[in-house]
Design goal:
Layout: H1 3-10, H2 15-31, H3 47-53, H4 56-74, H5 80-108, H6 121-126, H7 140-161, H8 166-182, H9 193-217, H10 225-242, H11 248-268, H12 281-298, H13 307-331, H14 336-344
Helix pairs in contact: 2-4, 2-11, 2-12, 2-13, 4-7, 4-9, 4-11, 5-7, 7-9, 8-9, 10-11, 12-13
Length: 353
């Protein structure tokens, strides 16, 4: 697929949303690349990690909600069953297949891992439903995204059928997920429901933004440097004031606004330094874990290098090895590797939102 053909496909999705996806996936891989930093709880205690974490996954949920409404509610009339089937193939099939093929190797290499995984049928089955047993830890996001997508799509479709106006539906959904965030439901660990409740509010806010983004954008100077500076300053101040408090979602929201401002500035100034990554965010999400692990938890057992070298290797390979694979499949869509990957992982490598 040529660059021009890609841009023709990308325009209806809004380019700044694609930039938000790229910003998000870079932060994900970067966050997973501090593992070898000494005395930092595998990088999680580092200030830079905590600051990224304050808005990184909320940003992904926000974009997911935005795209669901933009591409499936406003621009098309897909049935709930059809929508659920597509999302199952795109999210759950990769989750199942990659978890299954990774389970035995990860269990056998537990001596090198920080979180050993028992090689047993019980652990294997639990890995598909309980977050503490997930083979690739951050794949909880696939579970939560799937739950939110099909649930909210069903609610919005039903409310439309019974002619409940959006001006009532969306505020009710916001209230619902605020309540779920602060008063989580029973059985919360199952299928990452805790994360679903915790992050659902950002998904709904993304839905709301998609519903009226033109009106919102006409009043907010997203792409102005002064606005970006204000967003960044407010986010940083709120981070230090609200970290680990009930007000942390407010900090997350300002972080999302900061990212929107960055993405809008990139788009409005026609900067193209991220364009080579357009469309590759999902394959990077699916495959980067393998290269993060290889570059850090495995490699450091064989060579004695400073921790930051492992981090650089993890960041570069985590982004660009999956990127190379994606570009190969774009150029050779009829190759056995491409066809095998598409069959093996359902629709996850097909370019669609």
């Amino acid at each position: 697929m040529s660059a021009n053909r890609y841009e023709q496909k990308e325009k209806p999705i809004l380019k700044f949303i694609s930039y938000l996806q790229i910003i998000g996936i870079i932060l994900v891989v970067l966050g997973h690349s501090f593992h070898e930093c000494p005395d930092s709880n595998y990088g999680k205690d580092l200030l830079v990690y905590r600051m990224m974490y304050s808005f990184r996954m909320p940003l992904f949920m926000f974009v997911s909600g935005f795209l669901m409404v933009l591409t499936n509610i406003l621009r098309g009339k897909r049935s709930w069953r059809s929508f659920a089937s597509i999302k199952f193939k795109r999210l759950i099939i990769p989750f199942i297949t990659l978890s299954a093929v990774t389970f035995i190797p990860r269990s056998l290499l537990s001596t090198y891992a920080d979180e050993p995984l028992e090689l047993s049928l019980q652990t294997f089955l639990k890995s598909f439903v309980y977050p503490d047993y997930i083979v690739i830890p951050y794949f909880w996001f696939l579970q939560s995204s799937f739950t939110l997508l099909i649930t909210v799509f069903l609610i919005l479709s039903f409310s439309s059928k019974i002619r409940i106006k959006d001006i009532l539906t969306y505020p009710l959904l916001i209230i619902l997920f605020v309540l779920l965030h602060y008063f989580p439901i029973i059985g919360i660990q199952f299928f990452s429901l805790y994360k679903t409740c915790e992050l659902g509010i950002f998904f709904i806010l993304g839905c709301c933004y998609a519903r009226c983004y033109r009106a919102i954008d006409s009043h907010i100077p997203w792409s102005k440097t002064s606005f970006l500076f204000i967003c960044s300053a407010v986010w940083a101040i709120l981070f230090f004031l609200t970290e680990y408090t009930i007000y942390s979602p407010v900090c997350s929201l300002t972080g999302i606004c900061m990212c929107i401002s960055i993405a809008k500035a990139i788009e409005s100034n026609r900067l193209n330094f991220l364009d080579h990554m357009l469309g590759t965010n999902y394959i990077i999400f699916l495959l980067s874990w393998y290269f993060n692990i290889a570059s850090q938890q495995l490699l450091h057992h064989f060579v004695d290098w400073p921790w930051w070298i492992f981090s650089i290797l993890s960041l570069i390979t985590g982004i660009y090895v999956p990127w190379i694979f994606y570009k190969y499949m774009e150029k050779k869509p009829k190759s056995r590797i491409t066809k095998g990957s598409t069959i093996f992982l359902g629709q996850s490598f097909k370019h669609h939102q």
